[in-house]
Specification:
mainly alpha; 2 domains; three-stranded parallel β-sheet; two-stranded parallel ribbon; 15 helices; binds adenosine-5'-triphosphate; binds magnesium ion
Length: 346
């Protein structure tokens, strides 16, 4: 009885959680998003209060000269959400730049962070190199982890389902929350926890780094059968596995990373890996299995997407309504923040 009660109260605690995640509208969403965060959000929305943000202001930090790209991808990302099963009647989907309270919070948080601390962020360091920003970093780009802290704390989110590239951002957020609550002697802001999936970093088709929209190494959720086929055919495998009879490497081989993430038949997959390592199994056969597995996952998503894409005005209405809800929540937090900072003059 007692145990039962404890379980119930734990369940309640879990059900009370607030989730905030988001994606940059820099391109349609890909397999990395799906396994890293998106798939999890579909399940989480039934138990928790979930907010999903399309991070257009953040996307502009490294796309300032390309606003059309950001604008166009708002709809693409929203279609991807709906296609995988995010339900806008229970999840609030909103557009970041239309919640100006987030920009104001960012302003205040920037005073709690040093430039040196921002430069130490390992994800930012990696992204600066990838984007060729070494000699001139846009200031907005360097401080986007602070704006992410504003996004998370504005909703008092305590759970953030993300890929592992986002762990330094959660750490930065927690530092800001602790500084803010200490300096202003309050408990207004809430420390969030990252929620990592079983695949926290899916590699790109080039086998180099993480699959990422900005690196052009993605399989998108909306890719046609022909595109997926072509991308798999040309994707990186083990460069030393030249002839079928050669023994091959499974580690660092993105084909097997994708099979690990998506193939439901784990027993057959282990046998396949052993065969590949022993030699005698060609890339063509392994890639054929990968194509079969991926299309089984992607075909229904694409079909759903095509349905929603018939009525873009309806999708934009969903975003408008979600943004109105998000704005109310963020402005309440901002009120509390201003009060704690003693700048609530009138
Ligand atoms: P960009 O190249 O514009 O930064 P991206 O592909 O990195 O785009 P984001 O919008 O930055 O995608 O990331 C959104 C969310 O998806 C984050 O939580 C991130 O951790 C997760 N994510 C992105 N790529 C991957 C990946 N390859 N594996 C696992 N999770 C990922
Ligand atoms: Mg990214």
């Amino acid at each position: 009885m007692k145990g039962n009660y404890r379980m119930k109260s734990q369940e309640k605690q879990m059900a009370d959680r607030i989730i905030l995640t988001g994606d940059r509208p820099t391109g349609p969403l890909h397999l990395g998003h799906y396994v890293g965060s998106l798939r999890g959000r579909v399940g989480l929305q039934h138990q928790h209060k979930q907010f999903i943000m399309i991070a257009d202001a953040q996307a502009l930090t490294d796309n300032a000269e390309n606003p059309e790209k950001v604008r166009k991808n708002i709809l693409e990302v929203a279609l991807d959400y709906l296609a995988v099963g995010i339900d806008p009647t229970i999840t609030t989907i909103f557009i970041q730049s239309l919640v100006p309270e987030l920009a104001e919070l960012t302003m205040y948080y920037l005073n709690l962070v040093t430039v040196a601390r921002l430069q130490r962020n390992p994800t930012i360091k990696e992204e600066i190199i990838q984007r060729g920003f070494e000699s001139s970093i846009p200031a907005g780009f360097l401080m986007y982890p602070v704006s992410q802290a504003a996004d998370i704390t504005a909703f008092k989110a305590d759970l953030v389902p993300v890929g592992d590239d986002q762990l330094p951002m959660i750490e930065q957020t927690n530092e800001i929350v602790r500084s803010f609550n200490r300096i202003y002697n309050c408990s207004v802001l809430v420390e969030p926890k990252a929620l990592l999936s079983s695949v926290p970093r899916l590699p790109g088709t080039d086998g180099k780094g993480k699959m990422s929209k900005s690196l052009g190494n993605v399989i998108s959720l909306c890719d046609s059968v022909a595109d997926v086929t072509k991308k798999i055919k040309t994707m990186y495998t083990d460069p030393k596995h030249l002839r079928v009879e050669d023994s091959g490497n499974v580690e660092g081989n993105p084909v097997f990373a994708y099979l690990d993430a998506f193939d439901p038949d784990k027993v057959a997959l282990e046998a396949m890996k052993d065969h590949y390592k022993r030699g005698g199994l060609g890339d063509v056969v392994v890639k054929k299995r990968l194509l079969e597995v991926l299309l089984a996952e992607l075909n229904p998503i694409r079909a759903h997407r095509e349905q929603f894409a018939k009525d873009p005005a309806q999708v934009m209405r969903i975003l408008k309504e979600g943004t109105e809800v998000a704005r109310k929540v963020a402005s309440q937090t901002l009120k509390e923040v201003r009060k704690a900072m003693k700048i609530d003059y009138f």
